[in-house]
Amino acid sequence: MRRTRKNVLIVNGAQHGLAVTVMGLLRPGDVVAVDALTYSGFKVLAALYHLELAAIPCRPEGPDLQALQTLCQQRRVRAVYTMPTLHNPLGWVLNTGQRQALADLARQHDLLIIEDAAYARLVSRPPPPVVSYAPERTVYVTGFSKNIATGLRVGVVISPPRYRPEIERAIRATTWNTPTLISSLICAWIEDGTVARFETQKRQDARQRQQVAREVLCGLPVVSHPDSYFVWLPLGEESRADRLANALMERRISVSTAEPFCVSATIPQALRIALGSVPFDSLRPALLSVRDAVEYEQYR
């Protein structure tokens, strides 16, 4: 992926990068293909800008690209939003063949690709990003809050030159520019190796937390990636995720149901459990409480 002054834009975090991409390049009523379970923040943007989200069925290894092909043959799809590296909430990392197939499909149907790489730098030795397969039509969005620190609201948008004026206009309309102090700090950290050291530490921490989760939730159908800070826990057919989440909240444990992530009409009964928001010593007791609540829900 070639980065130059002509295609790199600095924004106030990855969410802001997604927002200015939507503002600049899409119009109300546009159809955007997304995974049936997708990042909740993009759903919020789509609702705000009156986009129509079309759900792509999810498989364990990634989105069903044949279903996307069929969708594009049946409807005028303007764009596809994808999280190919450490998908939120399912944790998958698409292989090189899947990335090439997505790029080919986008060219065939003239789709804009919005690649959300918010979590990508947590993965050690990931495949090349989708933008490297289709640079002429992919807007690549990433930030530093996931791989460095939550409060570090600086992000990067890498855009084809033809899209840059519209995205720049959206940036000026929303924030004018990113504060020089914080962007200069990030640049210095990249150059002196601080970012790389932080990322190594974050990966190690994530793997330790995932190990605890695997131990505590052993036997449950957990879906996760070793480098991620969350797990996805499908529930039994008779379980109610909202009831379970409310019961856990009474114990001061916050989990998400599938509803904020779901685009399809049928909402699965599942929980997204964040692993990085509590001190490490508190993680095991919290997960034990989750396991107890899940098992109680299954047999009530």
Quickly describe the structure.
It holds the Pfam family Aminotran_1_2. The protein has helices at 14-25, 40-48, 65-74, 96-108, 164-174, 180-192, 194-216, 241-250, 280-299; strands spanning 8-11, 31-35, 52-56, 58-59, 62-63, 77-82, 112-116, 138-143, 155-158, 230-234, 256-257, 270-274.
What keyword list fits this structure?
12 strands, 3-stranded antiparallel β-sheet, HTH_trans_reg/aminotransferase, alpha/beta, Aspartate Aminotransferase, domain 2, Aspartate Aminotransferase, domain 1, 300 residues, 2 domains, 7-stranded mixed β-sheet, single chain, 9 helices
Describe the protein's architecture and organization.
By secondary structure, the chain is of the alpha/beta class. The chain folds into two domains: 8-191, Type I PLP-dependent aspartate aminotransferase-like (Major domain) (Aspartate Aminotransferase, domain 2), CATH 3.40.640.10; 196-299, Aspartate Aminotransferase, domain 1, CATH 3.90.1150. The chain is 40% helix and 17% strand. It has nine helices and twelve strands. The strands form three sheets. Strands 1-9-8-7-6-2-3 form a seven-stranded mixed β-sheet, with helices on both faces. A hairpin with a 2-residue loop joins β4 (58-59) and β5. α1 (14-25) packs parallel to α2, α1 crosses α5 and α7 (194-216) runs parallel beside α9 (280-299). The longest helix has 23 residues, at 194-216. The chain is globular, with a radius of gyration of 19 Å. The chain starts with 7 loop residues before the first strand and ends with a helix. The mean pLDDT is 93.
